Amino acid sequence: MKKRIMIKAWVCLTGFCMLLVSMGCGGGGGSSGPLQLRWAEAWPINTDPALAEDFASSIYALNVYDTLYFPDANGDPKPHLATQAPTVSDDYLTYTFTLRNDVVFHSGDKLEADDVVFSLERLLALKSGLAALLDRVESVEALNATTVRIKLVEPYGPFLVMLYKLYIMNEDEVMANLDPTSSEFGEKKDYGKKWLASNAAGSGPYMIKEYKKDEYILLERFKTWWGGWQDKAPDLFQIISNLGEQGKLENKQLDVSSIWLSHDAFEKLALESHLEIAGIPEASNFNIMLNTQRPPTDDVHFRKALAYLTDYDALLAYLPGSSKPHGPVPTIMRGFETPAYEYTKNLQKAQDELDLSACKDKLSADECKVHLVWVSEVPSEEDMALAFQSQAAALGITVVVVEKPWATLLEDAKSKENALNGTFIQYGAFYPEGMSMLERYHTSYSGTWMQWEWLEDAVLDQAIDDALATVDENERFTKYAAVQATIMDKCPTIWFADMVARRAYRTGIYFPAAVAAEKGDPVNPVQGYVGYAHDFKILSK
Question: What is the pTM of this model?
């Protein structure tokens, strides 16, 4: 059992302290009340950090939990809970980390090496999508209270940047809140999954104050956070469902929008004197992911026909500021290399590929109809789906447009039978190398929202594994390019946008990523870090 640190800022024993709170005790809000940042995102948000695979859940996790390393503006690792770069063995299989000794969890427990061990072992045991990032770990052990040793099965080139997704949680607190009715993980019961679905066990700059499922999560400042606080940093950070966000922005009930507003909505909001529109480059792309195990998209020639008939400029019109990608890797990412060819609109090539497909002479048959899903919470996707439907009709291909909420889609992704032919998905980098956009095609990602394609190609899997096991960066990036070429030939995806994410935000907000983008400076490319509330400032209410 770890020693409990009593945090003075939490102990209000008298009415005098209550008086101080009303005056802004430690909150930074002064007499006018706490400073609040209200941020819209598509729902749901997964509050279990081991399951924080999507963009919105990543924003939550990185604000509530700490990690060993933190990405700088270029995505390179800088010490966070770890005090320095690790000691690495000559064979690149053993990494030894030294931890800070002044970190406490929100509960008051001291963060120690055992918590790092627990967090990594739990992540791997749950076998979530994030676990695939670290599945080359052979063992992890605490050598003492501030030293952790991780052994790998094989060398792992981008290992340190993978640790951005290892959120450290309080072992004692999680183990004290196991579901006694579960036997999923033996003596560890449910490993705290039920409790963590609405609670947290972190040490990060914010902690949960209130949680209303499918509506919002309200986080409050952890006043004694080891990283310290700047003046005018938000006291409260509220992540709100993006439903109805345009009206909330207009009525000053929201500070930062999601990226999912329509083009017309952004144009209208740009006229509001209290709002600005930011265009923030992201290491992400917008895709139609094609189920390669379901007719007719199980046929590579049919998939290529879809890629060549796509009017990329027409789809990009719904994502102003974004650009047509050269392939699966955004141009701003380390390891990007222009491929030998790319898919562009070419109806003759589309027809040639269609003539080679099994659907050549039976396009009206049910098995040759394409079912394309758009996400209910993102209305602009319906317009894109209808535009694609019209484009496909030029070659006689029937596209059936289907609307589904994100929660339903997450369930559909688990089965190749339930995943329809095509699904609109924005995919962002978990780590700042091109392989972060390529690795998701590995079979280990099948059954998650990150790979609707169900590619399941053993040769490709081996090529991905080999590239990741390459420590020399130049050699690793050369292998990335070869993997990219293989994926493009299989055409499991229609890549149609390198994302520049637009967000409307209130003029009284200092929004670090928006400021950097406007100056042309680097913007943190790792998924979710544009929403790191600790670095924001509330300049006016």
Answer: 0.83
